[in-house]
Write a structure and sequence with these properties.
The chain has 234 residues and is of the alpha/beta class. It contains seven helices and seven strands. It is globular. It binds zinc ion. Zinc ion binds next to loops.
Amino acid sequence: MRILAIGAHPDDVEINCGGTLLKYRDAGHEVFLVLTTSGNIGSNTLGSREEIANTRESEQLEAAKLYPADVKFLRYDDQYLVDTPETRATIAEAIRWANPSVIFTHDPVDMSADHYMTAILVIRVMQTLTGVNVPSEYSPVQSKPSLFHWDTPAGHHFKPEAYVDITEVVEKKLEAVSRHRSQNAWLSQFQTYSLVDRCRIQSQFRGLQNGSDYAEAFRAYRNHGFMPRLSDLP
Ligand SMILES: [Zn+2]
């Protein structure tokens, strides 16, 4: 299968579904990543917005080597992603580029502005993906993909309905998270836990719910004609 993860910022994919993507990799599936912003205000120490974006994109590419994944950067401004005909079309094109059977992205209950808007944009374009009359550089997605929403930061507002046991790949997942070196350094300045520790704790908590050592949690998107195949999860 072709698996697509769509994150708002470099690091979101690894934090929320890195273990699941590693399991897909181990089962021989292809992984693709799309980033709606390059997190270009996600540091107070790195300098200009351009410098931050360049640093974070190169860290994302380093993390993506672990899957390994093709990566597409859409480069909207951090914290200013909005729902317009243009952003919808760009997201739809990025999904058609990957032609996925399974899509992962944020959940609309996520209160981070870009996380929320990324989730909304993906939901808004789902019904256009297979349309032959939608203007596009790419062919329609071959079959209706399953869409899964991943966990929120610290799990706020998120009610899981499916889990992936990531025990066997958790150390690799944490290595992927640690490759976002600038975010690890910056967040450690003001958060109680390091980014890597935060991921370990949340994976352990979802594992506690799931009856495994470590897990990632998901909810499925449902719409008429777009029902998820839970058996697509690894
Ligand atoms: Zn984020």
